[in-house]
Design brief:
This protein has 375 residues and is mainly beta. 7% of the residues lie in helices and 48% in strands.
Amino acid sequence: MGIYTAAIISPKGNSGMTLLSSHNDDSTVNFPDIGFDFFYNGVNCRTTIKISGNSWIGFTGASEQLKINRRDAGADNIYYVKETVNGRPTFRIRWEGHQSYSSWGTLDLVWELILFNDSAMVLVIDKIPNTGTNSFANPVLGTTALTLENSKSYAFISGQDHGKAYTVNEGSYIQTDIKYLIADGNDIKHWDNISESYVKVSELPLTAEKFRSYGDDICRKERTGLVSSSPVLKIWSPSEELPAPKIIQTIVPKPVIVRMLEDVLFSEAYIQDITNVVLIMDSIGSGIIVFIVSTDSGVSWKAWDGSSWILVDITNIQDVKSIGMSAATLQGITEAQWSSLGLSDKRMRFAWYIEVAASTDVLKLKELRINYNVI
């Protein structure tokens, strides 16, 4: 278990590392067993990781999957070391060289890569001239272009199991024991997989021992079993370098029916009939909006079904969703069809059902305009 932090880390240098290759022009060499399972795109790469004098790494073999100023470069020295950080095994690679194969001894391209046993990585840039290609073959997502700078570090964190869908951000990654509990009023609760709900395991105050005994390894988004309207997420780690975590919760609003509170009146003697309705909307994604109309100040509601006006129960949200008129249907109603609605009182109001399915959906009704004929 680990956590991203925006803090930049520095290269550790080559002291105590094992020399794998020196004066490497175009050669590709293989690292030995890194000592733990490391997955990239579903493949266990503990014995398949290769590195090139042209400044690239192939996790599954001789494919150029991570390019750091990749060009016809030269590596004066390539090192590796197995290390333990916060009680977890890591494998650190160090590449020292130059952007041009003819400039031996001029170290203007120096970087380190740290591999973690949960498929995360941190790339630490010491020096980079940015005269070559910086990119990452990101499983599931495709090639990710990298923007790399001197004296910066970059965290590669897998968004799916077994090294897939990485996010890449400037900063670093701390791998340690992190435990989660919920303070639900005075009760301490953790997630129970059998009942699929939060259950009480203790009472306040919290202690490190309670985290060790009952803490969850992952933060659950469900709220089943919680009573308090404001439960508090508690996070614990033995690591002294753990940054203050940020929990981001994305909320998608529930479907709703919006009603006009007043009628649109067109009682002037010179207004003959309605010609059409025009909508101006912003719509991105898979959101749903459908309309119903009332000619008796909201007592009853109707929708055009393609051949006639039918009644809709506005108190039944599913009825409105299934029978209501789409934007295209509403705007396609003809002058004769509007006349068949029965507009003798020359008043009208609209209501609409609106639903978004994802946080990325955009659905805004900006204007509903009624056009009419005059005598």
